[in-house]
Amino acid sequence: MMREMTNREWEALSAYLDNELAPKERARLETRLKEDQDLHMALGELRRTRAILRSQPKMRAPRNFTLTPEMAGIRAQSRPASRAYPFFRLASALATIALVLVLVGDFFTAKPAAVATTRSSAPITAPLSPQEAQAATNAPPGMGGSSEQEPQGAVPENSAADQATQEPSMGVMAQSPLGTPEPSAQPLMSLAPNTQGTPLAELPAPAAKASPTETPAEAQAQVLQAQPAFEPTPTEVVRLAQPPESTRVPDLRYIEIGLAAVALLSGLAALYLRRMGNT
Amino acid sequence: MDEAALIQDALHGDLDAFNRLVLAYQDMVYYQAYRMMGEPQGAEDATQEAFVSAFRKLKSYRGGSFKAWLLRIVTNACYDELRRQKRRPTTPLEPLDADDEEIESPNWLADDSESPEEAAARAELNEAIQNCLADLPEDFRAAVVLVDLQGLDYSEAAQAIGKPLGTIKSRLARARSRLRDCLQGFWELLPAAFRLVEESET
After folding, report:
1. Cβ atoms of residues B47 and B35 within 8 Å
2. How far is it, in rounded angstroms, from Cα B115 to Cα A137?
3. What is the rounded distance in angstroms from the CA atom of residue A173 to the CA atom of residue A205?
4. Are the beta carbons of A263 and A89 closer than 8 angstroms?
């Protein structure tokens, strides 16, 4: 029974068979082979193994493995087309980016408009009443005993204001008879044709009875008071907010549609060129 | 065949030039794949994969033995394929017996000078070799196939596995010693083939 060889010994024997040992190592191994029977036997078996392996006929390929252009990933005659391809690809990408930016911008600019519209719809009566209350509290300094009338005036005002918001013309028509006794109330009516006009027109009425001389000055005071109240009226805010919105939005829509069209068409052109290039 | 010129042309995208190289080397590449994979279908897949990747990686060829460079690519393709097979092991639809092996690889028997007995013995020996090769670790198998079955010298084989000369030396020695153990049982069973080998060696 042959002793087990070490890996080092197998390596030396194997390299010896292939004539890959350095002359010194080779001489040393040959000396050992003469003395060591097991080593000699191992060499014989290794030689036989190597001979069996080397005796095996080589195999022929069962078919040809030549590559088709598709397998090689070659684009046939794509040179002229491929020059325009990067342009369209870039155009499509840029248009898409621009479209996204415009959409984001549109989204953020559309937000305040949405707030304005919500303000115009629901709480129209709520902002009205504080302003009317303010107008009512501002009024007393000018006129002595009208404090009693204020709450009375304020109560129907609210209902009148509600009516006015629903049917502005009807509201003004209904209130105007109250305002007519005082001629100075007329310009007020014309200045404030909205719901705000009703309390102003109503208030001078008792004042006119008390002292007609005071009325022009008082009416002026009313006008002065009415004007600051005039500007921030919610209905006016809606009216101010809406026109710019309605002018800006179509512009953005046109830009968005245009950019989307550019992105889509240049993308399709790039895709077409690429397909043409591949075939 | 001017190999260098064909490689140059192929580098410039000339697929015909590359295909001439394919035709020149496909037997060798397929044989490497067959010995690594142990079955024809996997060998075909690995061979095709190797040529496709050789065409794509042609720029990375830095001179030297083109044969060794190709063998390296196919050996790596086999490693990949074997790893894939290990991940999702498949059972063959019909187990291959000795007859199937003969039908699928008629090239092995294409030696008219052999008697039917010798041919049978050779086929049996071949099967034994393939079984023993399959038992080897992949690195050892690649080394012994490159040197003893493909006939590469050490430096070419080292190039083909992308490792230093010492690595191919030790892997080859260990593969041979294991094959010696594995084939020992067949030596007595295969007197004719064995004798042929012995005679040709001495």
Report:
1. no
2. 128
3. 16
4. no
Average pLDDT over residues A125-137: 46
Residue B85 tokens, joined:
């097979």
How many whole angstroms separate alpha carbon A146 and alpha carbon A208? 11
What are the helix (H) ranges across chain B? 3-11, 15-37, 40-56, 66-87, 98-104, 116-135, 138-144, 154-161, 165-187, 191-201
Chain centroid offset of residue A73 CA: 39
Cα separation, A192 vs A179, in Å, equals 13
Token readout for A218 is: 């008082």
Q: Tally Cβ neighbours within 10 Å of residue B183.
A: 21
Q: Which residue has the tokens 């069973």?
A: B189
- Give the residue ranges of chain B where pLDDT is below 70: 89-114, 188-202
State yes or no: pLDDT of A119 exceeds 60: no
> What is the model's pLDDT at position A112?
60
Helix B154-161 and helix B165-187, axial crossing angle in degrees, nearest 10: 100
Q: What is the mean pLDDT of residues A59-88?
A: 78
Structure tokens at A178: 């109250």
> What's the CA gap between B67 and B157, in Å, rounded?
10
State residue A149's pLDDT score: 44
Kindly list the residues from chain B whose CB atom is less than 8 angstroms away from the CB atom of residue A65: 22, 26, 29-30, 47-48, 51
**A14–B177 CB contact, under 8 Å:** yes
At which residue do the structure tokens 């959409």 appear? A103
Measure A69 CA to nearest chain B CA, in Å.
7
Q: In the prediction, which pLDDT does B194 show?
A: 55
* CB-side neighbour CA atoms (13 Å) of A155: 4
Distance CA A53, CA B137 (A): 17
Distance of CA B169 to the CA centre of its chain: 18
Q: What is the DSSP letter of A161?
A: H
Cross-chain residue pair A67–B22, CB shorter than 8 Å: yes
* Residue B113 CB coordination number (10 Å): 6
Of the two residues A254 and A133, the one the predictor is more confident about is: A254
pLDDT score at A89: 87
| Contacts with B156 from chain A: Cβ below 8 Å | none
